[in-house]
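Hello, quick one for you while I still have it in my head. Could you read through the record and tell me how the tokens relate to the sequence? No rush at all, and the record is pasted right below.
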Amino acid sequence: MPNKSKLVRIFIGNIANAVVHEVLENAIEEQSLRSHYGKEMLNSMQLARKYREQLNPIDKTLPESVNIRRQIVKKAEQELKLRIKKGYTGINIDSTSKIAEKLLKKLKA
């Protein structure tokens, strides 16, 4: 079993990826792309749930949850800014924090 810091990094990466894909899903009008981003978001959430359960029992909040939330938002915003530079349009970076909060509540993190 990987050590705790590695599990936390993987958990943060998967949640941040889920946040990015949900923001992108909200920004796109084309249905085929929306469904692709939705599937990616669900896949990242499933992986995050797997790592979350390895960190603590699911019924307890992670002790470093405030720091984890900050890292998730920062990582997601960085990725979205890269996407904007690549020419993606309609991306609402301001929604990142709210979406991260919503997904973390689903995982009770």
About this structure: The two ends are 20 Å apart (CA to CA). Helices lie at 4-27, 31-55, 65-85, 96-107. The chain has one domain: 4-107.
